[in-house]
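Handoff note, outgoing to incoming analyst
You'll be picking up this chain. Sequence as last confirmed:
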Amino acid sequence: MLTPGSTLNLAAPCLPHGISEEFFFWPIVAFRQVTLRTDDGEEVDAVWVVYKREERAIAVVGAAERLVAVDPSPETDDPDWIDSAFVITDEDGFVLRANPGASCLWQRNIARVRV
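Most recent structure output, in case you need it:
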């Protein structure tokens, strides 16, 4: 089980341009289990994790063994990145695609929809 201070090491996931997988080796300072829904109405367990080293933090959302969102500046209102192959957004938040396409279709979450 993940706890603050532990690390989560994933095998080189696809990340938005300019973000290095190095942060996966930083300490975890926050962790929360969440439930997301798919576009066909199913519920899926997901995790929201914040990694931090010194003054830099990065938050991610993972679901069904996939990285679906990355926020390189969770302390600001700047939009995070979502992998649109796996997730769409609506007024209720993130919605996972029941039939995802190829990964690495990162786009800014300009609607600023949250988990």
